[in-house]
């Protein structure tokens, strides 16, 4: 079992090293076409890994699928494991779309130049993998030891869905985030961007190469005239902090959703990882169009509601639909998301046709 975990982590680290060290070594503005190509690459890798999941669980390679899934008590064979992996992947990917709205607001607030946004997202996603890995490890232990925690997760998802549907869940401005406020209060912050640097020392050559002013920084806590050698935080670092904390908040919603599908830590973690890896390309592809999908947030809320209800009545659904009922859930999720996108496009087209 250790070998499969080690192999997967090495593979992901290799992908990330190629991404930042080879393909995005130089900062540049990522256009929609390039973003879509990378989205297809990451999406294809996610599906290709699903092939591995099928054969690994079917033949029980390296200890996979030997133990009963703590969520439904089933021994996962190739078909059930693949169904759970794909369902988890689609749910996590769809919920990550909501994160794009907030990331776009963060970049706009801190006036992050487009050519540096990929770097922020790269390190933000790398940190998100570590944080989510820890949360998944804790969640898997809780599910295995205390099965009733699934019902708590279910109620949490249902409440979250209701809040998204009927309550105002608009994000507060980034300057109200306690982490950003703490950083500004106790650490010297420069009001300018300095290339791709997250930190810069006062008085060095890099500190004199200021490019774009950080429009969101408050003058009374900005320290650009610090003593030489003082380590300064750049606006790019503050944007990274916001992306990290935002992902942590979203993970509180999305991780319980994946535990509605499976309690197998390997399936939970791998589906999360591939969903997150494609978030950067998805952001650059959709950031300029998110406002067009006005009903997408409603669709995501309905997905959370369906997943929460499924978690509550999973035993009953398995008796009626059979052991592969998660595949039906996958179909329902895809239909809901597609309906949200199509409804948004249709309403947008009708509004444009009005005089």
Explain what the structure shows.
By secondary structure, this protein is mainly α. The protein has a domain at 28-165 and 257-353. It has twelve helices and two strands; from the N terminus they run H-H-H-H-H-H-E-E-H-H-H-H-H-H. The protein has helices spanning 2-23, 32-58, 78-109, 114-145, 149-166, 178-186, 235-259, 265-277, 279-286, 296-312, 314-321, 325-353, and strands spanning 199-201, 231-233. The chain has a two-stranded antiparallel ribbon with strand order 1-2. Helix 2 (32-58) packs antiparallel against helix 3, helix 4 (114-145) packs antiparallel against helix 8 (265-277) and helix 5 crosses helix 7 (235-259).
Largest sheet: 2 strands, antiparallel
Number of helices: 12
Provide the spatial order of strands within the biggest beta sheet. 1-2
Strand content: under 5%
- Please state the oligomeric state of the protein chains shown: single chain
What integer value in Å does the Rg equal?
22 Å
Short description:
With 355 residues, the protein is mainly alpha-helical. The chain contains twelve helices and two strands, in the order ααααααββαααααα. Helices cover 68% and strands 2% of the residues.
Features:
2 strands; 12 helices; mainly alpha; two-stranded antiparallel sheet; 355 residues
